[in-house]
# Entry
Amino acid sequence: MTKRSVLSLLAGVSMLFALLPFAAASAAPASDVFFSEYIEGSGYNKALEIYNGTNGTIDLSTYSIDLYSNANTSPNASVTLVGSVAAGDTFVIVLDDSRIDPALLALADQESNAINANGDDTYVLRNGSTNVDS
# Structure
């Protein structure tokens, strides 16, 4: 092995060890809940998933979801959330309709007629009057 090869190998190993502390670092927890999934399936199969990436359980009683349809500046529908979501867990809200797929309905924590968008509409997650996600 040439001197140049040995130096290249040592430089590569040194860089690898220099990066190890960063690889072990974890991401900071989220400061609030957020939309983690939007489902607009066939027919009436519509749902939103909210993820709690914080370190604690979040009481959802002060949270709501507003639906803005067709570029309206005021919400067309709104739903106040119920229950809570544990740290690292999700909360699923589905369209309240008897024609929804039973498999999707089985995942639901809450049902609402407000979960009825068609792709060009906007959902806004609020905690009181504060926008949390959209």
Q: What stands out?
A: The chain has one domain: 33-133. The two ends are 58 Å apart (CA to CA). Helices lie at 3-24, 102-105. Confidence is low (pLDDT under 50) at residues 3-7.
